[in-house]
Amino acid sequence: MTAITSAGPALLETRQVRKLFPIERGLRRRVHGHVRAVDGVDLVVPRATTVGLVGESGSGKSTLGRLVLRLIEPTSGQVCFEGNDITTLHGRELRELRRNFQIVFQDPYSSFDATATMLDSLREPMRAHLELDAAQQTARAAELLEIVGMSPEYLTRYPYELSGGQLQRAGVARALTVDPKLLILDEPVSSLDVSTQAQVINLFAQLQDRLHVAMLFIAHDLSIVRHVSERIAVMYLGRIVEDGPAAAVYDQPKHPYTEALLSAIPVPNPVRQRERRRIILEGDIPSPANPPAGCRFHTRCPYVLDVCRAEDPPPFLTPDGTTVFCHLHTSGPQLEGASIGDLRTGDRSAQ
Amino acid sequence: MSLRPDTTGLAPVAAVETVATARSTSPRLRLVRRLLRKRGTVLAIAFLMLVAIAAIFGTAVAPHDPNAQDILNSNDVPSWSHPFGTDDLGRDILSRLIVGARISVRISLQTVLLAGLIALPIGLVSGYIGGRLDNLLMRIVDAMLAFPPLVLAIAVAGLLGKGVGNVALAITIVMVPGFARLVRASTLAVKEETFVEASRSIGTRTRRILSHRILPNVRSPLIVGMSLAFGAAILAEAGLSFLGLSQQPPNASWGNMLRRAYDHSLYTHPWQLWFPGAVIALMVLAYNTLGDALRDALSASQWVPTRDHHRKPWQAWNVLQAWQQRQRKTRRGLTAVTRIEVPAAPDPAPLLAVEHLSLEFDTEQGRVRVVDDVSFSVASGEVLGLVGESGSGKTVTSLAIMRLLGSPPARIAEGAVYFEGRDLFALSFDEMRAIRGAELSMVFQDPMTSLNPAYTIGDQLREALRLHEHVDRATARARAREMLDLVQIPAPEQRLHEYPHQLSGGMRQRVMLAIALMCRPKLLIADEPTTALDVTIQAQMLDLLRSLQRELDLSVIFVTHDLGVVADICDRVAVMYSGQIVEQGTVGEVFTRPQQPYTEGLLAAMPQTGRAGDALYVIPGQVPHPRAWPGGCRFHPRCAYVIDACRSERVSLTAGPNGAAGPTPHDVRCLRSGELDLRGSQ
Lengths: 351, 682
Description:
The complex is a heterodimer of chains A (about 350) and B (about 675). Chain A has an eight-stranded mixed β-sheet, with helices on both faces. In chain A, strands 2-1-4-5 form a four-stranded antiparallel β-sheet. Chain A is an alpha/beta fold and about 350 residues long. Chain A has twelve helices and twelve strands. Helices cover about 30% and strands about 20% of the residues of chain A. Among the domains of chain B are: about 35-300, Orthogonal Bundle (MetI-like fold), CATH 1.10.3720; about 330-435, Rossmann fold; about 595-680, no CATH class. Helices cover about 50% and strands about 10% of the residues of chain B. Chain B is built from 24 helices and 13 strands. Chain B has an eight-stranded mixed β-sheet with strand order 7-8-9-4-10-11-13-12, sandwiched between helices. In chain B, strands 1, 2, 3, 5 and 6 form a five-stranded mixed β-sheet that branches. Chain B starts with about 25 loop residues before the first helix and ends in a 14-residue tail after the last strand. The model of chain B is unreliable at about 1-15, about 20-25, about 300-315 and about 320-330 (pLDDT under 50). The chains are: A alpha/beta (about 350), B alpha/beta (about 675).
């Protein structure tokens, strides 16, 4: 269990949640193993907090987002909302619950129906959850657009008449319609241009300050989530490898994978970028259908120990409030919660 | 339900942006315009209207009583009083055709509309709900489709008895399965769209998702399918009528007129068969022409101005191009050149010199300039970064160098590209083909779509070589192996026999690089080669590219939007905005001491740059569409340092204050470049 000390009950908590997709083969569709997309994840999103969920493709971060929303059913484990298990809800109860969670998708173009106007799309959640007449719905839609910085004139527009950044902001407006307690942001800026990306990231930060909505910000880029998150969880092959306060994860990574991810992001300064010590990981991310035994990162880890190949690393709680799943903190160099970077400086002084 | 108080009346968190462009024409109006563009469609519509008038007014517009027999004037040849002649009983053929139109029109409308109406819910439910229900419905449909349609219709009509109504029912039953499959297939595709997922996550009821989200999106394919089925319905009715199952004599239908003429006049008065036969054929032709036109117009209206419109612009143009190709003959494989003057080659000549390149697209809305007077050069062994956001023209510039953009719509309006002193825009297709892939090579963003899934990696590597060099199989094989080794692919011998889908994204991109380098090109154009990759794989790829570039003394044009990647790998950089280069120089100079406000903004907006917790720097507004480039400096509406002169004066690219004095040129397009103190990346 991840030990997270925060005041009050968690808004969202997953307990050992697991999603296995069966691999079917042949005419009879016999099941030949499973893709372990999410494999036993404990994640906590406290009230009015933004948690960044970072990982590369195949890490299971988007699947986890959809599990939380109950867009797909978990194979095992629990998803709890305000302390109540929501994995067993169905029908009307589930629809009622969905008021509390809303999602913003990666591709703003495909997340709007091309045949519907903005007004029609913004009214959809109101129809499902609010009892408003047509005039009130229009007024509310206009107000929402203004909150995300768009003119109400856009209400009569079709999706193809808006740019990517505008559509993404409209997507945020749609998600805010029913005053959700939790926003799931699934790679919300990765299809946007640099200048628009900054606009949308700032919008999230402002919304959180003003509306006190909690957010689960899913992204593949650590530098993006750092700007809006209080906590960051790093995923690799269906598991969380490090979960802690944003500054601690970003500045003092405790897991070799987090360190490698950080060092792989190029900095737009040629002098610094070329002088930086970079860790280039060998090979590709292994298939989630056949994950390595022991620590899942051991096949690519530059610091691999014998114990990593055999044993699953237990959670280790560091003094700065990070939970890390890595043998390096208890075996071998026994970092005991220190940053992985300390290993590197050790290397250097030895040379 | 009350709204949470703190949301209502909340001041906007971002500055409200106003609507920039005027509302475009409604989709429906555009559809009609597109339909009427082709002469064939207009003719088909005119013919259908004529038949509709005949069907509605029937005997009122017929010159004679269609059933009045006149034995004395039987088998008359066409004349003024009987334009189509008379049949063996002396009845006026034209009048009978006019009255018979009612049967054909009625049957085609009734059967197709009814079948569509029945099939729609079956297909929707089957496709959206899926599972056992889908299995059951589709097996029934499959069983019905296993019979030849006409045989099934005859069986049904035989079972129900003769008569127009029963024949209509028979044809309807035969049509339902096809439509149901069509609707189901479209539903399955639409169901996977993110907006349906969005509706589900919002908590919308399934019934409403089906009626308001799925239905409008499967409508178009169903309409097209139905319009193409009208012709089939006419033929089926004529066939059943010919067999005597439909309209009973003496009342006329086109099918039983054909039958009567066949029985009584086939050898003596064959022209009596021509008229009903021709009317049936024309009617089917008209329906099908309209159906085809409708399909083209609907698919065009779905693709050209919708989603792709604001994405990478050339994607929309690709679709537009495919659409226009049917109208005009395309010049195969080479971008057309319509320049009037040829700029002189620079002296001394670098490896590649792009001189005053301007590129235009002929679109539905008129001519659009997408690249405007772009000049840059690449020295031997140099890596040039071409950066910009989507719509800046960076990719089309790189494609224009290779002359890979299709014409129409693309056209090189001005300029020249000198590669080793040769003007690429003056070459023939064969001359250009000899250079492409051999001396000038390209790597694209998406390694999956750039590799042919039907051939092995080895096949594709060898093909790249054998196109340009005459080598035997063994040599080609050895070279292919060697190249895979060079791009650091483990177990190259085994990989040669594998197909693209067996490789990971990173491996595929390495293979693409191996193919591009197969003939040892002097210049490699890499278009966002690492954008689709994960950051850890991107780091591997950049390392590989750097070592290969040094090893092979390769020149590279690296097209990207990621300034971090440019800082990592490029020697010089050209920043593009709205089709122009706004700043160019060495990466160190441009990134640490930018002279152009757009470059400063881009650097500051990078999430890597800002401090955590602080708001990111934002360039206000949007990248303008090429059709709406502002006058004066194109960046002025978004620029924080704008002065009046920026709005009106044409700004040219000049040597910046640092560049003129320094050892390498640093060019800037800004009126205030000398006086501004801009921040670079730290």
